[in-house]
Amino acid sequence: MRNIEIRQEKTSDYTQVFSLNRNAFGQDNEAKLVDALRSSGNFIPELSLVALLNGEIVGHILFTKIVIRSDTGNTYESLSLAPMAVYRSFQKKGIGSRLVKAGLRKATELGYTSVIVLGHENYYPRFGFKPASRWDIKAPYDVPDNVCMALELVRNSLDGVNGTVEYPDEFESV
Ligand SMILES: CC(C)(COP(=O)(O)OP(=O)(O)OC[C@H]1O[C@@H](n2cnc3c(N)ncnc32)[C@H](O)[C@@H]1OP(=O)(O)O)[C@@H](O)C(=O)NCCC(=O)NCCS
Questions:
Q1: Domains in the chain, ordered, with CATH?
Q2: Ligand 1: does its nearest atom lie under 6 Å from the Cβ of 125?
Q3: What secondary structure, in 3-state letters, does 40-80 show?
Q4: Which of 68, 92, 113, 121 is the most buried (most CB within 10 A)?
Q5: pTM score, two decimals?
């Protein structure tokens, strides 16, 4: 799909982004999470992106600030990729991939050095994500090991980083 435009989300997009998340996930939880995260201190407006097809929003991706906390109490700033959504009728056409790539590029430009995702092991590796266990980074939730993945936006940025990911409280409601 060549005629896809990716841009930063505007306040006037919020209603459409809510409907999109509800459609993609088949429930309101993730749509409400996006609303809650926008009002949190972890929100980065430049990393809430929408995909438009003929001017209509068909996809959305959000990256928020998180920290990784080691057992010894050291904290490392990182980003969480979550949630992302593409309208059911427009899935598997590459729109999600365009959103991920645009988001990773923007995050790098903004100076972030790594991203954590909890997601499908067959999808995110195509963007360079690797099992987070490689760095001894763990999810705070009881998920299979290969679901928690990390990506270095800057080479070796996760060297020496280990610990448990701390998500903003808003994620507890999902
Ligand atoms: C995940 C999602 C955003 C991907 O968007 P998309 O536009 O379909 O993505 P792309 O077209 O770039 O890539 C499609 C590929 O991802 C795979 N994929 C998507 N979701 C997947 C999942 N949950 N498990 C396994 N594979 C998945 C598809 O099978 C397809 O694989 P292929 O390229 O080998 O054929 C979209 O499927 C979606 O909105 N899903 C529902 C919400 C969700 O689960 N979001 C992710 C968790 S936050």
A1: 4-168 (3.40.630.30)
A2: no
A3: CCCEEEEEEEEEEECCEEEEEEEEEEEEEECCCCCEEEEEE
A4: 68
A5: 0.95
